[in-house]
Amino acid sequence: MLNQRRFTPTDVRDKFEARTGSWVGPFSVLYIDNPVFAGYSFSSSGPRTTQEEYGQDLYEFVQQFYKLFPHLLSIDLYIGGQSYAGKYVPVLAHWIHSSRQNAPTRIPLRGLYIGGPLFAPAVMFPENFEYLYNVGAISKHQRTTGRKQTQDLVDRYLKGELDPADTIRQIMPLIFSTQIPSYDNYVTGEKVDFQRITAIMTSDRLRKALHVGSRDYVTMNGTLFSQFHSDIMSDTRDKLSELLDAGEYKVLIYSGDVDVMVSVAMVEAALLATPWSGRGAYENSSRKPWYGQPSPTSNRRPLYGYYSKTSQLCRVVVRGAGHQTPHDQPAISREMMLQFVHDDCVGVMTT
């Protein structure tokens, strides 16, 4: 995501609304189909399935992008993503950060943001049962049994008794054993509509705009997923902690409060186990309510969620959102990004 210029949120809103009659936004967003063989992406070689491999590819892509569009080097760059991007985002940001330490680079990285991120699976997977127990979807026995079985598998993996692929194959049935309508959103029961996504992305209009010709679009690549079994258990906490401690980058980690796939409890467990200098302060921090502006017909301010700010880390829990937070709460997600880019975290413009 490229921040087009320094701005105040209200200033941008007023100008866009006056010109277009609707609020569009101040960002330019570049989407990357990753890993290769997902979406429209393709390669003459096999898939890149390790942090070193896809990190190198992503970094080379960024370098080539700025060679083609050098005028964008004057604009702040934010790297972000959702869910499994808990691997990709810290890895790419760390490649850029490392290049700055080893040689001068002009890549204008300003921050990173990740939603519902899977970045420390061995820590996070056993916490999967906490959310379901707290909302009453499983019993104490189910929580205790599921957590113990998952932790046992994780411990065997950490001892080297199970390889990553076997660990995933045995953990997944435990995690997805509960008969709830959706792991994306516990309240609405909505799931990702892959058919709708495919219909949009393969429409003539999109194909022409993306210059993909007749190339196939892959919404869900099961073969590729199986090739990533080893990477699923990989951890990016070391890279995230180095980025946080560098003091050069803003970091936003957000969650939906009704996300079961990567619940708030799972993300919290990983953050509290991330070895950065601000971990103690984060552990002792207090979360504050995040309110929006009152509507013209009411003085009551809507509750958007909750947040805390610890050094470079902005932690946000979005109310009424599941794993697909921008889909479930688009207006709040937009405001979250505006405030993060402008003020380093949320809560400043609405308190």
TrEMBL record:
Coiled-coil portions? none
Span-the-membrane segments of this chain are none
**Pfam hit, one:** Peptidase_S10
One GO BP annotation is: proteolysis
Q: Which GO terms describe its molecular function?
A: serine-type carboxypeptidase activity
Q: Which SUPFAM superfamilies match?
A: alpha/beta-Hydrolases (SSF53474)
Listed A to Z, the keywords are:
Carboxypeptidase, Glycoprotein, Hydrolase, Protease, Signal
Which family does this protein fall into?
Answer: Belongs to the peptidase S10 family.
Can you name this protein?
Carboxypeptidase
